[in-house]
Automatic annotation (TrEMBL):
Pfam family, one: VTT_dom
Source organism (scientific name): Rhodopseudomonas palustris
Protein name in the entry: DedA family protein
The keyword Transport appears for this protein: no
GO CC aspect terms: plasma membrane
Membrane-topology descriptor: Multi-pass membrane protein
Protein localization: Cell membrane
Length: 208
């Protein structure tokens, strides 16, 4: 992962426009049912946000790219579920993960709109809740009224830590890109820990 992040940072530094596209795709793919559970979108966003203090990327551009990708991804997943209804939950590829689908459904039925809000911050469940909300016929106006504010909080929650960490590390160590994978890894561990806590509260142990 460290080698991947180093290569990604170097690529983004040399190709500013493609860096924004990468951020957009990372956020979008995280919302794709099943696929989003394995795409390290949050880590990518954190890593590239560390280029903001040095001027390689713009804060507003990074926030906009991440938020736009998340909104389109969540909206597409919700729309797919809303059209296909419950049959999408037992279709491929979601049929390969019945336990996670069942937990996402139980989570949504228990918490309703709050499930849509909090799932945005908990990978990999964020890849299952929007499509589940659509499949269970949550009204579109209610879904987007909750989902969009969640995204507007989610984007800076992922971007600003990278900015702060990069600024501090650059000041104290000079060449922050050597330390960025460590920071990204630490955040990844915290995110994974949050997911494990969620799974435990749902009453099931994670399966591999």
């Amino acid at each position: 992962m460290n080698a991947f992040l180093d290569a990604l940072i170097a690529f983004a530094s040399a190709h500013r426009e493609l860096a924004y596209l990468t951020l957009f795709l990372a956020a979008l793919l995280e919302a794709v049912p099943v696929l989003g559970s394995v795409v390290p979108g949050s880590t990518i966003i954190l890593a590239l946000s560390a280029l903001i203090p040095g001027g390689q990327l713009d804060l507003i551009g990074v926030l906009a790219a991440a938020a736009a990708g998340a909104a389109i991804g969540d909206g597409a997943a919700y729309g797919l579920g809303h059209r296909q209804q419950r049959q999408i939950l037992s279709a491929w590829p979601m049929a390969r993960y019945p336990e996670v689908v069942a937990q996402a459904e139980a989570f949504f039925l228990k918490y309703g709109g709050w499930a849509v809000f909090f799932a945005r911050f908990v990978p990999p469940i964020r890849a299952f809740v929007p499509v589940t909300a659509g499949a269970l016929q949550m009204p579109p106006a209610r879904f987007f009224a909750i989902n969009i504010p969640a995204i507007l909080l989610w984007a800076p929650a992922h971007v600003l830590p990278g900015v702060i960490a990069a600024t501090a590390l650059e000041q104290s160590h000079g060449r922050m890109h050597h330390w960025l994978p460590v920071v990204a890894g630490a955040v990844g561990v915290l995110v994974f820990a949050g997911w494990l806590i969620w799974r435990r509260r749902q009453g099931g142990a994670p399966s591999t």
